[in-house]
Amino acid sequence: MTTNPYLPLFVDAYETDTLHLTVEQDGMYSRLLRLMWRSPQCQVPKDPEWLQRRLRINSEQYADLLLPILEEFCTIGRKFVSQDRLKREWEHVNSISRKNRRAAKSRWRKDKVDANAVPENSDTHMPDAETTYPFGNAPKPKPKPKPTTAGDAAPDGLDPTAIIAAFDEARTAVYGPDNARPYPAGTDTVSASRLIEMGFDTQTARAMFQHAQQRQADQGKAPIATLRYFEGHAQEFLARPPEPERHGAPKPIKYAKRQTREELRKQRIDSFVRIGATNWLFPTAEEPPPTPEELQETRERLGVEPIGEQK
Fold it and tell me: E-assigned strands of the chain?
């Protein structure tokens, strides 16, 4: 079980990535993320029976709901299944927790040493009548520095509000004024300050925002809602120049169509072969096990070798 009692959920990013899911698939995905978060190393075994038992689902729900989610959102390894964004957040939270523990131990040791220390010639530190400062002749204490907040200007003089304005301009340029935000998100100021610390100025940030929003539009997705989305993509953008700016109306959002029985069976056989399962979970008249010909055709199409022949 994990030692992290809370799971950070970026609602805007989650809703953007799951708009096409049904209510049942959304609930299954959320349950899977919680199970991964509470599992060692933020990953679960690639075992259909184990997943069915821990997620409290039957074989039909496993095939209809869970398998499509695993293939679309997760990374399936040889023995374990994980979710890349969730794993990064898990490692980030653990890193902060370790730093806080080290800092607390360091403070505790320092306080213990200071409490046990006895200064030499301690009687000489007591002021007498001649050294005591009378009335207003005592030296004035130095004023404490004013703490900075996220809303203050960055060290180089760049105001986070300029980054936020560039984000709104890029969103409006791609999606039109009808999709403009009525007001900034509550986390935008902190996210803008972090981008400035990474080395972004207004022009570079606007280019990144324009590139990301255009990519969302080309994929038929809703616009990016907050600046927090870019905290995990900023370094990637700095290392790779963006594509040239494009203008025009975004593509409409395309929702998934209902699959036929034949398409569902093909998808189940693909998953069966891909994860290396040995027991078919649908031994009924309506869903008979795959024939050797179907398994062979699927392996050739996916480039997967039989388990006994894998090296």
Answer: 44-45, 75-76, 80-82
